[in-house]
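Researcher: Let's try something more involved. This one mixes different molecule types, so please make sure each is placed in the same coordinate frame as the others.
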Amino acid sequence: MWQIVVISGKGGTGKTIITASFAALAKNKVMVDCDVDAADLHLLLHPRILERHEFRSGKTARIDLEKCVECGKCVDLCRFNAISPAFVVDRVSCEGCGLCDRICPAGAVVMEENLSGEWFVSDTAYGPFVHARLGIAEENSGKLVSQVRQVAKEIAEKENLDYVLIDGPPGIGCPVIASLADTDLALIVTEPTLSGMHDMSRAAELAGHFRIKTGVVINKHDLNPENTSEIEKMCKDRGVEVIGKIPFSEEVSRSIVRARPFVELSSNAVSREISSIWRRIKVMVTNNK
Amino acid sequence: MIIAVASGKGGTGKTTVAVNLALSLDNVQLIDCDVEEPNAHLFLKPDISYRKSACIHIPEIIEERCNECGLCQEVCAFNSIVVLPAPEGARKGSVLVFPNLCHSCGACFILCPQGAIREIEREIGVIESGWSGSMAFAHGKLNIGEAMAPPLIRQVKKLIDPGQAVIIDAPPGTSCPVIESVKGADFCILVTEPTPFGLHDLELAVEMLKTVGIPFALIINRSDIGDDRTDEYALKNKIPILMRIPYDREIAELYSRGLNIIDSKKEYKTRFKELFSRIEDLHVADRGHQRQRGHG
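Model: All components are placed in one shared frame. Result:
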């Protein structure tokens, strides 16, 4: 079983469109959406939800004003400025450390468990799919990412599947680190813009930091050929392989409203290049082990 | 006035809007809070005059005072301290600290009955500030491999000078880093694109802003691609649409080279100035409502 994660650094470079196409191209696989606070892959895969689970994680303080003696210790000691001078907890700022509960002389603090989101096991026309929805203004997206990945891995092991296809979040922080951990290949989707290049290089550095084998795809490469050659040079210097260059096509942006994997909608140059990238990925992960 | 620019979905044009809006105004400060992938500097090319390492506090055990009572492990809500008892035959066990998991709440340090914990600084990123022409600029850069952006965002936001118009470029998504970035703003611009992805993530961002209690309105970028569902959504939920930027290959090319729209397409400077006036009006109206509610 090989775990393949699609990341980008910069948002909006085409991660989800590419992952959905891999879902249509690959055989024997399970898909996971790890962009848990702005998940979109389900919009293309149309899951039928089989299992729905609550994601409970962390706690939030609440102060019982009947018991509170207004000594102010909690307000002074809270490092997150989450307690107002009127002893009301700001639920968004509270990180649930519980220090206020421990130091309150009146026992007026109640630590309440958070319902931080939901995760789902679904069936799709392409195979099983594990996805999630982080609650509004909730934390611990990294833990939810680890949860959906664990479930997907168990499904892959139980059903003897070959691939776990992971749609990752943008950025390089906590949910990205959780998406990358222990994968066999990180595919970084970039675009030939200064921002795309800057963010790709930080994402590649992150993958390198965790010693994850990395491949780069340059999406809309013909929008700026100079930047595309610069990306190829950057990758070469880093020892990272550019495994595909997808041309710009208005058909792609138009196709999003049709809400299906692009390779099923078109056999144009974009579609052919995505198929070639998938074949390349199969070779890369097989040679890895 | 502090205006945050956020989006839900990534790549919809937050940085483009934030930078071009700031460039259209006088007496303005731009704060890039996307510390995982800061991009505004690529367009503003600021002269950096101030650079500081951004640190958080993590515990360090003072071994000679520690009696391995285990309280620090018990009070740590983030599993970042583990107390290992002395192995057979040995006199002393050990206390392991996992800095990456630590939220710097101070519980272990404050509660240790032996006074056996001190706090030391650990760098998580850098903060830089300077000038791009007459515009004040600041951003943070998270070190590669660091998980937690919010403490760095909090430190970058300390450089906010509320005496002028402040534009905050927020990261994508709807979770902690975004909330930390928009918190305290007077108004939030949500930049979206009229596709199913854009709309889905917009709805999440709207719910997030309602929870945090910040007034907001939309800018629809690449407004001529996709479908009408974003307009229908905005109409139904009474969310003002402040601006539409049609898809324009020239804008895409300028962006790819790190150039700004208002430098090549002068009409956009007027449009962004008008955008700012409209936000000021909405902001005044919103404060009026709040006062009325307060007295009612």
